[in-house]
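Give me structure tokens for this 471-residue protein.
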Amino acid sequence: MKAQHYAPLLLCLAACTTAPKQEADEINDSTTPLHLLQPDYQVPYGELTADEVKADLDRVFAYCDAQTPHRIIDTDGQEVADIDALPEGATVERGAFRIGSYEWGITYQALLDATAATGDKRYADYVLRQMHLLERAVPAFRERDASKDEVADAQMEQIIHPRALDDCGTMCTAMMKAMDRYPELVLVEIIKNYLTFVEHGQYRLPDGIFARHRPQHNTVWLDDMYMGIPTVAYAGVHTGNADYSNEAATMYKNFVRRMWVPEKQIYRHGYVEGLAQQPTYHWARANGWALLTTVELLDMLPETHPDRPFIIAQLRAHVAGLAALQSSEGFWHQLLDRSDSYLETSATAIYCYAIAHAVRKGWIEGITYGPVAQLAWHAISTKITDEGKVDGTCVGTGMAFDPAFYYYRPVSTAAAHGYGPVIWAAAEMYSLLQEWHPRTNDSGLHYYEQEQTNPSPLFYLTEDGQGEAVK
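Here you go.
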């Protein structure tokens, strides 16, 4: 070989002898099952226990309990001993949340279900304590201020003289449910007053659908689907009068006709009767109200009601539309179809509750939607502070016909809208985990009707539930 040919050969040999040796523990396709590497999830992912859910539930409940005083106080801040002889200037002691608001009507219902799910009586005892206070306070304030234009205490004024569905719908439903579970409650007159407004006081369009004269004349709000329809439907359960059930089902169909956007399988927030070009913004919490209405209506209508097939089909379409829009973090966006809008907690909690409940009832498939509900719960759990506050909740929101309004609505732990939905979601997830068995298999979360006991991270299903590890 000629000398000029040696140089490249020597360079090649040098390179081979000086290349670093492969480390024995280096992660590569030959040494490691890369599909089992731990992803950097932004929220918890994987298996979940009922005890973990209840721990979060208890923190939220403890905060709500501490922040909602349950006394009537005089002008010196002392508790009024005899509510029936109410002194001038006496008021309901103020806390962080109003005990007669629509947000707290939801919270009462959620707490009743939390006791039913977990057996923990503290939640229902809280409801009973507040309801017993109201059953005595409402007639006392009404009598004391009968000669005045308004009841002096703002919370009592909202209860005694409701002026919108927000003032009475969910509270009426909560009271009817509470009375049916705890007959010792004496709430008949308050319920009657609420129901009279829902049926006869709230403005309606000619076909009976609830409407408002704000922000435009004859505006239909998706919010009112929930603020009124479950109240009417549960009045049918509470009284045994089927006319209420039929009215609720008809109104539901009228809301769907106006508000449903079939190409996206979600609802618009507002509808102005008579407009050829409707404003269409898909606000997350309003879609939550619609979904909650659907599952509540299915719970309340007789199994033989002729409109059940339509309502179940609507439920399945809506859940499919929402599942397609769930973010990688498990939340949903403030504007559902706009992924640059912020991730919002209260809507996520409502969806979590409704989807988990629909799975338990067999209205939708658990294998398909159990993981959707659980991912939502994992997301929610990251917004529950050590103190039990719920973060990331959009504050009270009216309606607008431009995106900036929704994008920039503030969020606050003081927003009462987050607490009832989170408690309801927790109660339902607790129940779901008694009936279904989540397991990770090949790193993905799956819901199984039979508990899977194989410890392998990757397994085939077997009839006995023990599984067969993938070699």
